[in-house]
Amino acid sequence: MITYELCLLLRVMPKPELVSVVKRSANAIFEKGGIIRKLENMGTRDMPNKTSVHGIVHHKASYFLFEFNAPPSCIDKLLDEYMRDVDIIRRRIYKKKEVAPFECTLHEDMLPPPYRKNVQDLIAEAKKSDKPRFKYNTGLDYYPFQK
Description:
It comes from Asbolus verrucosus. By secondary structure, this protein is α+β, with helices and mostly antiparallel strands. The protein has helices spanning 15-31, 75-84, 106-109, 117-128; strands at 2-10, 35-53, 56-70, 88-95.
């Protein structure tokens, strides 16, 4: 199954009601065959723009982030269900990208520049490309007049 992130903005309400909305949102994922990997509460804060949903203008919201695995066929059904919920101001589901593994090169970056491999490669490349000198048939290896 594919890993998704669900960002929910819930209207500001007392804690018991907030818990019931989060449980209802989580149960919707479970009913569609999904598995919740992580649930993160990001707190209540001001929204960047005022938003009007279900006939009410909202200036503040409670932010929640779900990380879950689910089949791709159930995503539209989840969005439809969350759209009808009056307690949810905004909902977005994003496909989570897998982080490519990388190798730490801190020990190489801490070396002085002449000893770094990438700097040595640049020096070797510069030595390969020999610039042609400009000659005016004067026998000098420089241009005697100012340009």
